[in-house]
UniProtKB/TrEMBL annotation:
<dbReference type="GO" id="GO:0005737">
    <property type="term" value="C:cytoplasm"/>
</dbReference>
<dbReference type="GO" id="GO:0009401">
    <property type="term" value="P:phosphoenolpyruvate-dependent sugar phosphotransferase system"/>
</dbReference>
<dbReference type="GO" id="GO:0008965">
    <property type="term" value="F:phosphoenolpyruvate-protein phosphotransferase activity"/>
</dbReference>
<keyword id="KW-0418">Kinase</keyword>
<keyword id="KW-0808">Transferase</keyword>
<keyword id="KW-0598">Phosphotransferase system</keyword>
<feature type="region of interest" description="Disordered">
    <location>
        <begin position="1"/>
        <end position="20"/>
    </location>
</feature>
<feature type="binding site">
    <location>
        <position position="84"/>
    </location>
    <ligand>
        <name>phosphoenolpyruvate</name>
    </ligand>
</feature>
<feature type="binding site">
    <location>
        <begin position="196"/>
        <end position="197"/>
    </location>
    <ligand>
        <name>phosphoenolpyruvate</name>
    </ligand>
</feature>
<keyword id="KW-0762">Sugar transport</keyword>
<keyword id="KW-0479">Metal-binding</keyword>
<dbReference type="GO" id="GO:0046872">
    <property type="term" value="F:metal ion binding"/>
</dbReference>
<feature type="binding site">
    <location>
        <position position="197"/>
    </location>
    <ligand>
        <name>Mg(2+)</name>
    </ligand>
</feature>
<keyword id="KW-0460">Magnesium</keyword>
<dbReference type="GO" id="GO:0016301">
    <property type="term" value="F:kinase activity"/>
</dbReference>
<feature type="binding site">
    <location>
        <position position="173"/>
    </location>
    <ligand>
        <name>Mg(2+)</name>
    </ligand>
</feature>
<comment type="similarity">
    <text>Belongs to the PEP-utilizing enzyme family.</text>
</comment>
Length: 315
């Protein structure tokens, strides 16, 4: 017998008991933005801007960047769009940044660290974002990648505010940032956890190496502990905390994230409906039980089983 079809949830994300969970799209190009805007999402939780900078000899100037950001923002009306500033390093060919070759690019000058060697690119990008914000109805949120310390967060916030940007955050994708989430949150308006890199750096496991899948499994209890640390720190100061790594697209894992205190989830747009449907049938208290059961497990597989068993109890 086929399982009875579940009713399809509509509208903003929420748990069965009405606790809101923002459901947002990840985008990486203008074409992605066009596709994502046609889905029933609440906005953009991660706009990866690397496409603007890669594979070109010259620096995109403020006018060129403003035009592209404006086009993207117009697609989302007054919905929030969270733009991540350039996340590149010596493994990515950014001709105009003159990056030095590095033995370990994942541990090198990448993400926000580029701002220390070439500040102009960050200032130009933030200036263009400010122009595009003023030209549209967008609710712009801007965040920096690969932030490790509260000092880096403070510097980014000051630079972004100088460009007229009001909602400023950082990504938490380095274990040091997760461990000191309270310090980071004192500097910013919101944080967004990048589980792809947070797994890579927590487990010392290159995310590009397919043989390391078990270490990179987001159900690993050590990763859940770091997410919980950030979730609790954000809850304590009532600031938003998103997850924008690929793991947010797994409906069961999304429920655990909600149980860990995450307030929004950002994913490839086609995954939104599955997550919306899953959350709609689970009360928030059950998401919290799922999260604590998963954290008590001692392997990724056991963590998933524990969460699944509880989710199935509501059927
Ligand atoms: C992440 O690291 O989880 C993330 C969302 O950023 P990216 O995948 O672009 O590194
Ligand atoms: Mg990342």
């Amino acid at each position: 017998l086929a399982a009875p079809a579940r009713p399809t949830a509509t509208g903003p994300g929420r748990t069965r008991d009405g606790h809101p969970v923002g459901l947002l799209a990840n985008i990486g190009t203008v074409a992605d933005a066009e596709r994502a805007a046609s889905y029933d999402g609440e906005g953009v939780g991660l706009f990866r801007t690397e496409f603007l900078f890669l594979n070109r000899a010259d620096r995109p100037d403020v006018a060129e960047q403003t035009a592209i950001y404006t086009r993207v923002f117009e697609l989302f009306g007054g919905r929030p769009v969270t733009v991540r500033t350039l996340d590149a390093g010596s493994d990515k060919p950014i001709a105009f940044l003159q990056l030095q070759p590095e033995e370990n690019p994942a541990l090198g000058v990448r993400g926000i660290r580029l701002a220390t060697t070439d500040r102009a690119h960050l200032v130009d990008q933030l200036t263009a974002l400010g122009h595009a914000q003023r030209a549209t109805a967008v609710r712009l949120k801007v965040m920096a990648p690969m932030v490790s310390t509260a000092e880096e967060a403070r510097d980014f916030v000051l630079t972004a505010r100088a460009a007229g940007l009001t909602e400023v955050g950082v990504m938490v994708e380095v274990p040091a940032a997760a461990l000191r989430a309270t310090d980071l949150l004192a500097e910013v308006d919101f944080v967004s956890i990048g589980t792809n890199d947070l797994s890579q750096y927590t487990f010392a496991a290159d995310r590009m190496v397919s043989g390391l899948g078990n270490l990179l499994d987001p159900w690993q209890p050590a990763l859940l502990d770091l997410v919980a640390t950030v979730g609790s720190a954000a809850q304590a100061v009532a600031k938003p905390v998103g997850v924008c790594g690929e793991a947010a697209a797994d409906p069961l894992f999304a429920a655990v994230l909600v149980g860990l205190g995450i307030t929004s989830l950002s994913m490839a747009a086609p995954a939104l409906q599955g997550v919306r449907d899953q959350l709609a049938v689970l009360p928030r208290s059950l998401c919290q039980e799922m999260a604590s059961a998963a954290r008590q497990a001692t392997s990724a597989g056991a963590a998933r089983e524990a969460a699944l068993g509880l989710a199935e109890s509501v059927r």
